[in-house]
Each structure stands twice: as structure tokens, then as C-alpha cells.
Design brief:
single chain, two-stranded parallel ribbon, 6 helices
Length: about 170
């Protein structure tokens, strides 16, 4: 619980503010830590969309190390947030839960999954890892399961297929 990055510190600060607010006002609050959310309508600056776009255009794809991320499909996250909202309506205090698939996927594994779903080969260029990148993220979702009854249901392959269908204009 001692983040080293500014990103991690900002998340921690927000959780502390939420905890103080919930206790000061007797409110219920859930802070959801969402892990590498992906799916249709994803922002163009995020990894999966950047990778898919480059593969589709036949451009080189620079891969900075082979870190692992816990990719979580957006519909699983949406369901988790709705369950969190329900919890806040019936409880007081602040809880922090991880919403993630609970599976660390390497960058190369993600690229291979995108290749299968897009039916195209990536032109990868290996690069050294970025010094600020964590080698791995992995959600421990036991608390989300116990508190909210939530667990991720969409396997990576199915989520990537849905995402790529959207990228190809096959899904709105």
C-alpha cells in the first residue's frame, strides 16, 4: 500500500478522501480499483486500441518489454460498478475493492489474441521496458466477491473478439 508512481499516489489520495467523506457524512461508498479495462469504444490512447489500430493498418508495433496486465472487459466492470452502487445504498463507510479478471496476460499474449481476432499478423518490434512500467498487475478480487458478489465472467479471448468486431465496424 505504498505506491511509487504519481498515478498510484493519486489513486491512493482519492481513496483517502472518499474514506474521510463517508465517515464524516455517514455515507456508503465503494472505491473501485479497475484493472486494464478494455472493450468497444475504448479510448484511442490505451494499449489494446493502439495495438489493434497498428495491426489493422499494417504498421510496426513497438513493444516495450513483455509486462503482464490484468485485462478486464468493460461489461464486467459495469456490472461491478452497479453492484457497488447497490452496496452504497444499504451500507455506511468506505470500502475499496479490486475489479479485475484475476489473470495476468503478457503483452505478447495480448498481441497474439488480437492477431487471431483481427485475422492479421502484427509487425512487432521489441524495445526495452519503460523504467516506470510495473512488470505485472494482477487483481486480488476476493473482497469484491465477498462484499459485492462480483467476479469477472468474460474470458480474454471472447472480450478481444468483441472489441475487434467493434474495431472492424461490425458492432456498434
Amino acid at each position: 500500500c505504498a505506491p511509487l508512481s504519481p498515478y498510484g499516489k493519486s489513486k491512493q489520495a482519492a481513496e483517502l478522501l472518499c474514506t474521510a467523506y463517508a465517515h464524516a457524512w455517514g455515507a456508503g461508498m465503494v472505491c473501485a480499483r479497475m484493472f486494464s479495462v478494455y472493450g468497444p469504444r475504448q479510448r484511442p490512447d490505451l494499449a489494446m486500441r493502439r495495438f489493434a489500430s497498428r495491426i489493422m493498418r499494417g504498421e510496426r508495433l513497438e513493444l516495450y518489454g513483455d509486462c503482464k496486465r490484468d485485462y478486464t472487459e468493460v461489461s464486467d466492470i459495469a456490472r461491478g460498478l452497479l453492484l457497488a452502487l447497490d452496496w452504497t445504498l444499504e451500507n455506511q463507510g468506505c470500502e475499496v475493492v479490486n475489479l479485475g479478471a484475476g489473470r495476468a496476460v503478457s503483452t505478447l499474449e495480448l498481441v497474439r489474441s488480437l492477431e487471431r481476432a483481427l485475422g492479421r499478423k502484427a509487425r512487432t518490434v521489441p524495445k526495452p521496458p519503460h523504467p516506470l512500467d510495473l512488470p505485472e498487475t494482477l487483481a486480488d478480487t476476493k473482497k469484491a466477491q465477498a462484499l459485492l458478489g462480483w467476479r469477472a465472467e468474460i474470458p480474454l479471448e471472447r472480450g478481444v473478439e468483441r472489441f475487434c468486431a467493434w474495431m472492424n465496424g461490425e458492432e456498434d
